[in-house]
């Protein structure tokens, strides 16, 4: 038998080592030791980690790579970012939006990031909707791009958002978005959640709402989301993004809320890079981290994913399309430094995010799509520690990106000539 691709001697995220992965017709057909067969291409993983591709379940592609247009965010604050986005929106053009998004997708592929959910601001125009619908089709061979109709200025607060959200969905946007804490009153926020859930239920769509992205412990719209999820029976088709107010809530109410979220079956997305940067601007000391209660949500059985949110845009001057950078930040700010917790942070940018996005055929197992990343690391924890080099990125059984292994040449008497950072992995006995 001849395969299209055969990866030899791979380590998998679950700890299995010495595994061969055989691919035919864009699918994984075997994962086992010592496969004896020919293949059109053979890759020796040399014992390094082969993972399903990285996933970013929360991003804003309409703004990405726009940093500096029309000016730079010099203060680095949320308020200046909001003002800048207001200045930038009248300058947006279809072609510029498409070009920036395609450039970002090039970067994403190089980082092994092959699935992205992007929110699109539809508050006062659908120019970004049309541009990103075009991008979705153009990148379809190599990136799964999901699009969210996002009334960024408020579903009710923005005069045109109600009509434009409907039109965006009619044009082919597949997810209903919202931002209840940005409405003028708490009651208006609650009403917006109810209205958006009704739209999603009637159309059979998923829901992903920016929810309680606030330092106000009384911002509790995620409670309404959980109730509406149960009422409409939407379960894991619903996602609450950010939920940063939970960081500031009293522990009794948070324990009740987390149980409600778990009961509903909805997903939660935290965005570590942005949450810890933009939250707590009014604090002196102690300063709140702003990240939602990731360990507690996970302990309750909630599917928690990690998103990048922004990359070189009005709100965030940094970013690199690297989901391992996102996981690395979550490990630190969430104080998730046990071996199991760090491994879970790796899952939060891979398998957990695949569940959030509802991706079919994701994983490293027979029958799964042959989408994989070969990393210069021995394990998920090591991948996070190193922000490991993506040696090969594979889509549908074909290598679409390669990066040379990271190594440094030394000129030190009596010391090695080459240093490979991945060779410093500790030997940890498995229980």
Q: Note the overall shape.
A: globular
Q: Are there runs of 5+ residues with pLDDT below 50, and where? A: none
- Supply the number of structural domains: 2
- DSSP strand content: 15-25%
Radius of gyration using CA atoms only: 22 Å
What about the largest sheet? 8 strands, mixed
Q: Helical segment tally? A: 13
CATH structural fold name of the largest domain: TIM Barrel
Give the class-level CATH name of the largest domain: Alpha Beta
What is the fourth-level CATH superfamily of the largest domain? Metal-dependent hydrolases
By DSSP, the count of extended strands is: 18
Mean pLDDT: 96
Structural class: alpha/beta
- Helix share, percent: 25-40%
State the separation between the terminal residues, measured CA to CA: 38 Å
CATH architecture term of the largest domain? Alpha-Beta Barrel
GO molecular function: cytosine deaminase activity; isoguanine deaminase activity; metal ion binding
InterPro entries: Amidohydro_3, Metal-dep_hydrolase_composite, Metal_Hydrolase, Metallo-hydrolase_Enzymes
Domain Amidohydrolase: 41-400
Protein name: Amidohydrolase family protein
Short description:
InterPro entries: Amidohydro_3, Metal-dep_hydrolase_composite, Metal_Hydrolase, Metallo-hydrolase_Enzymes. This protein has about 425 residues and is an alpha/beta fold. Helix content is about 35%, strand content about 25%.
């Amino acid at each position: 038998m001849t395969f299209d691709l055969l990866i030899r001697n791979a380590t998998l995220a679950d700890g299995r080592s010495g595994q061969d992965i055989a691919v035919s017709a864009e699918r994984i057909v075997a994962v086992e030791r010592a496969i004896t067969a020919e293949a059109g291409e053979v890759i020796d993983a040399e014992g390094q980690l082969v993972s399903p591709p990285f996933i970013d379940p929360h991003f804003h592609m309409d703004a990405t790579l726009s940093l500096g247009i029309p000016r730079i965010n010099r203060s680095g604050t949320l308020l200046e970012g909001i003002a800048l986005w207001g200045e930038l929106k009248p300058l947006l053009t279809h072609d510029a939006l498409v070009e920036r998004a395609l450039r970002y997708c090039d970067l994403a592929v190089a980082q092994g990031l092959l699935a992205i959910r992007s929110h699109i601001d539809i508050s006062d125009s659908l120019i970004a909707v049309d541009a990103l619908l075009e991008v979705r089709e153009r990148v379809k061979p190599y990136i799964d791009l999901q699009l969210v109709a996002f009334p960024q200025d408020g579903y009710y607060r923005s005069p045109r958002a109600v009509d434009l959200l409907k039109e965006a969905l009619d044009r082919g946007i597949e997810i209903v978005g919202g931002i209840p804490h940005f409405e003028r009153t708490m009651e208006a926020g609650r009403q917006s959640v109810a209205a958006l859930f009704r739209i999603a239920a009637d159309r059979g769509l998923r829901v992903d709402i920016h929810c309680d992205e606030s330092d106000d412990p009384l911002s509790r719209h995620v409670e309404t989301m959980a109730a509406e999820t149960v009422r409409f029976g939407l379960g894991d088709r619903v996602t609450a993004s950010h939920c940063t107010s939970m960081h500031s809530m009293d522990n009794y109410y948070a324990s009740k809320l987390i149980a409600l979220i778990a009961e509903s079956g909805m997903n939660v997305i935290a965005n570590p890079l942005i949450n810890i940067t933009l939250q707590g601007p009014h604090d002196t000391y102690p300063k709140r981290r702003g990240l939602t209660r990731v360990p507690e949500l996970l302990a309750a059985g909630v599917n928690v994913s990690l998103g990048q949110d922004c990359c070189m845009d009005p709100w965030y001057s940094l970013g690199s399309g690297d989901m391992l950078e996102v996981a690395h930040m979550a490990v630190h700010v969430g104080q998730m430094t046990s071996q199991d917790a760090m491994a879970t942070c790796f899952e939060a940018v891979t398998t957990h995010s695949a569940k959030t996005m509802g991706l079919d055929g994701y994983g490293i197992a027979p029958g799964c799509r042959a989408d994989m990343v070969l990393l210069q690391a021995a394990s998920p924890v090591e991948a996070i520690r190193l922000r490991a080099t993506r040696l090969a990125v594979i889509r549908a059984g074909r290598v679409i990106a390669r990066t040379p292994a990271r190594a440094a040449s030394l000129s030190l008497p009596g010391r090695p000539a080459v240093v490979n950072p991945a060779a410093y992995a500790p030997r940890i006995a498995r229980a």
